[in-house]
Design goal:
CATH class of chain A: Mainly Alpha
Strand content of chain B: 25-35%
Number of strands of chain B: 23
Radius of gyration of chain A: 24 Å
Helix content of chain B: 10-25%
Mean pLDDT of chain A: 88
Low-confidence stretches of chain A: none
Structural class of chain B: alpha+beta
Number of domains of chain B: 2
CATH class of the largest domain in chain B: Alpha Beta
Oligomer: heterodimer
Mean pLDDT of chain B: 87
Number of domains of chain A: 1
Number of helices of chain B: 8
Strand order of the largest sheet of chain B: 6-7-8-3-9-10
Distance between the termini of chain B: 36 Å
């Protein structure tokens, strides 16, 4: 069979081009477009150049200060939940039953929080942590420690952090459990023969073998928590004050609360770039590791 | 350094085994002398690895005792048994360097630093790992990894025994010979008991002073390679060891001779009659069959002749029962009317697969 050249074949990719244009390129261009303009309502826009970006990246300005504040809180939030979820997830995975009915029960119970919608998780904790009717908040208050997340920064952070730990630790645990399962029995047998302590087994066998799944787990949890919106919004609405106003919450406030589409556009673009860069860093590290392992 | 005795040892992986259910190890009594080089030989699934793991403590046997110099260790953990073991597939700790890998069993046992350094360099030299000591044990070839595993098995100078579970499976053939010779040398120099599991008879016969042949969870014969060759205690041993294996022919016992398909084969001495329902067979190795003149032996039909270099294997049959004979190169095989005769001293009688004296 001879192949004939026919440029009309390009038309065959047209549906995809149209689809991508409508669901990705056009919306993104709209955001970029807004980010370069200012609006005074009533659909009047005026060219504003890169002023929003300049303000955003300068912490001295009101807008920039606000952005860096929210960025700092978002990063802190991600780091705190990772610092809790990763070690706890690993410990849970190691402590899990290895087979039998107990394992099945354990897996189902651990999968449950992952299936609860974000909104519902927010509502659960909104109620659970109240100092008047919520079991958790009431118990702590009953111990003599004032715990009111609507007016205490510390209490509000405790609630949003615990909520995320409750919701997502099992993801890390399940990933690690799968990772542990894939370690051949010979490694444990050899460690016994070598007289290795439990800690040495963890440090020298389990942790190195878990590195890959942990990298994926950390990436997923970092991305999700860095973009978290629904749960803290339902519980604290970003308050008290701005204490739990993370980037995504602030973005919505600016875009829909104040209808500052220009500022919100600029912030969206920078936010997206940060997420992409972090993703790329993780990817580079992962690929780098693979290459290192592959070479002799 | 210890003498290992197995007393009524048996193991089943089932929680409540009955006498008729599957036993990975059937009741056995035997002694591994201190300083011996043993090979544990048998087909896959015969219980070799289970026996090895029971000795090292990775499997706690369900029945019986394991005595190390008279002390029962059957229920004691691996760490407390002072046993080294090398597995079929390489295990390396890949966040550590090669040297750290070799030192690991010593560090865990709190050996002094200078002694560790000394042992590591000795073992590295033995296994030709000297140049790679400082590199990370990550991304090495299977050969290298298995050398490291072997090294960790050999590095402790005070072990009761070193157990090898088919350690050279992943190693390429040339290096295999070299490493096996090294292990043999280590054994001769250090007087440590070594038990080497394999399903390869060549490996077993070249490594061991004594070969333990297992079949179906039971030990069927313990002996020197010579004994296994000359007087297999079980038809399986005769068949499994030797190339080609021993001829096993159904026979009727008649005092000082047997009848095989109506042909007489002489025995070295007279045998007492056996109970009626015993399955009687004779075993004779191809090496002890020779071409006979018209007046002796039994007639065979030749199927084919294989030239294996120094000799030829003649594949033939007595009335449909397959027989192999090893014929030296300088003897001509007649084109028809071939007869074979067996050396009576090397014809063994088996009742229900076990040798009869």
């Amino acid at each position: 069979m001879t192949k004939t050249l026919d440029n009309k074949a390009w038309l065959l990719v047209l549906p995809v081009v149209i689809l991508v244009a409508f669901n990705a390129i056009l919306p993104l261009m709209t955001v970029i477009n807004y980010s370069l303009q200012d609006t005074f309502g009533n659909n009047h826009f005026s060219w504003n150049g890169v002023q929003w970006y300049a303000e955003l990246l300068d912490p001295a300005t009101e807008f920039g200060g606000r952005f860096f504040g929210a960025l700092g809180r978002s990063i802190a939030y991600s780091l705190v939940i990772l610092a809790i979820e990763v070690p706890v997830g690993i410990m849970v995975a190691i402590a899990m039953p290895k087979r039998g009915v107990a394992l099945s029960v354990c897996l189902v119970l651990m999968a449950l929080p992952l299936l609860v919608p974000w909104n519902v998780v927010g509502i659960i904790w909104q109620l659970y942590a109240r100092d008047n009717i919520g079991l958790f908040g009431w118990s702590i208050t009953a111990l003599g420690i004032p715990f009111n997340y609507t007016n205490s920064a510390v209490a509000s952070w405790i609630v949003v952090v615990l909520m995320d730990v409750w919701h997502w630790t099992s993801l890390i645990a399940l990933l690690c459990f799968a990772g542990l399962k894939s370690i051949p029995a010979a490694f444990y047998q050899a460690a016994k023969i070598d007289g290795a302590s439990r800690w040495a087994v963890f440090r020298r066998i389990e942790l190195p073998k878990l590195q890959r799944v942990l990298l994926i787990g950390v990436l997923l949890r970092f991305m999700d928590s860095f973009m978290v919106y629904t749960e803290p919004f339902v519980v604290t609405g970003g308050g008290p004050g701005n204490y739990t106003t993370f980037l995504s919450i602030d973005l919505v406030k600016i875009a829909l609360g104040q209808f500052d589409l220009g500022k919100a556009g600029a912030m969206s673009i920078v936010y997206t770039l940060i997420v992409l860069i972090v993703c790329w860093l993780f990817y580079t590290v992962m690929v780098g590791r693979d290459r290192e392992e592959g070479s002799a | 350094m210890s003498r290992i005795e197995l007393v009524d040892l048996a193991h089943s992986y089932l929680t409540k085994p009955s006498p008729t259910s599957h036993w990975a190890l059937k009741t056995m009594n035997m002694t591994w002398e201190q300083g011996g080089a043993y090979a544990l030989l048998g087909p896959s699934g015969c219980g070799k690895t289970t026996l090895l793991n029971a000795i090292s403590g990775l499997v706690i046997p369900s029945h019986g005792k394991i005595l190390f110099d008279g002390t029962d260790v059957a229920k004691i953990s691996t760490e407390q048994r002072n046993i080294a073991q090398v597995f079929q597939f390489p295990v390396v700790y890949d966040t550590m360097t090669v040297a750290e890998n070799l030192a690991f069993p010593l560090i865990n046992r709190g050996v002094r630093g200078d002694l560790i350094a000394q042992r590591v360099s000795e073992v590295a030299k033995m296994l030709d790992l000297g140049r790679d000591l400082a590199r990370k044990a990550r991304g090495l070839t299977a050969d290298m990894k298995q050398k490291i595993s072997l090294g960790r098995g050999l590095v402790r100078s005070d072990v009761g025994a070193i157990l090898f579970d088919e350690p050279l499976t992943v190693i390429d053939p040339h290096l295999k010979w070299h490493l096996r010779a090294q292990l043999k040398r280590v054994h001769d120099e250090s007087d440590v008991t070594m038990i080497y599991v394999t399903h390869d008879q060549t490996e077993a016969l070249t490594f061991a002073d004594k070969v333990v042949v297992m079949l179906d969870g039971a030990v069927v014969q313990i002996g020197t390679p010579q004994q296994l060759f000359e007087k297999p205690a079980h038809t399986f041993v005769g068949y499994f060891i030797g190339s080609p294996g021993m001829n096993v022919l159904p026979a009727d016992l008649a005092g000082d001779h047997v009848m095989v398909r109506g042909h007489r084969i002489d025995l070295a001495h007279g045998y007492a009659p056996r109970p009626m329902n015993d399955k009687i067979e004779i075993g004779v190795r191809p090496e002890f069959l020779r071409l006979a003149s018209r007046h002796e032996g039994f007639p065979v039909t030749v199927a084919r002749v294989e030239d294996v270099g120094r000799a030829r294997i003649m594949r033939c049959a007595i009335d449909g029962v397959a027989v192999s004979a090893l014929i030296s190169e300088d003897v001509a095989i007649p084109s028809d009317g071939v007869r074979l005769v067996a050396d009576p001293a090397h014809v063994h009688v088996y009742a229900d697969s076990h040798v009869v004296d």
